[in-house]
Amino acid sequence: MLSLEHVTGTRTTAAEVSDILIRDGAVVVEGAIEPGMLAALNADLDHFTEDIGVGLRNPASDFFVDFYGASTVRFDGLPAKSPTFLDVMQLPLLQNVADILLKPNCEDYLLNTAQLIEIRPGETAQMIHCDELAWTPMPKVDVILQVEAMFALSDFTKENGATQVVPGSHLWEPGREPEPEEILQAEMPAGSGLFYLGSALHGGGANTTKDVRRRGMFLGFVVGYLRTEENMFLTVPIEAAKNMPVRVQELLGYKPHFSIGVVDVGSPMALLR
Length: 273
Ligand SMILES: O=C(O)CCC(=O)C(=O)O
Ligand SMILES: [Fe+2]
What we know:
- By secondary structure, the protein is an alpha+beta fold.
- It is 27% helix and 19% strand.
- Bound molecules: 2-oxoglutaric acid and fe (ii) ion.
- The site of fe (ii) ion has 3 residues, from loops.
């Protein structure tokens, strides 16, 4: 059985993280977010978490009511909700890992998910899954489509719902289910990031505590020719996008991918100027 490797954000390199992801499908980067940035993220997101509350507002199907959790606060569109999130999107380690793993398979990648996931006491374990299933029924392909990170905005412990992860499962044949002993949990201090591939099996953990909330921030990139899970053009109003860094505008989808995503068969970047 594989273990879940931990590296240190200030000492590791994008090459090392990418190598571990290719080998194991997942790795914890401790200290991925420095303490000032962590405090700023929590300050940006606290009131949304309180105001929005648990459960789904407009489930796309009944499946998601259970999958996303009745005792979990989940909302997306973080680029418009947290100025600090824009810095996390552009963290050199994250961008460089995505460049190494995704750029061989696409012209550029897109921001696919930007979610706050706060697992509250009493929440049960999420179904083990791989995030590539979002594009069902796309056939399984042998290239990396997604690079993702679950950042711990609070400490992640076994008891409070640390993400379950199955190292090595990105190489499994489709449909293979993990044995209980193959499922590890990404216990990690606040500020860490569980980096993983969209083909790696994982899921939120159960929160068996009485009063400890597990706050995670989920950020993922996908090759630029797939439709993104989150509709960034609606969650981030164009007036807000106009004031964002160019790299963020590109990752939100304003840069065409060859002929995809155009307006008047031209670049939507022009609409932001
Ligand atoms: O909350 C977590 O730790 C994982 C969530 C997840 O995997 C998902 O919603 O796709
Ligand atoms: Fe997931």
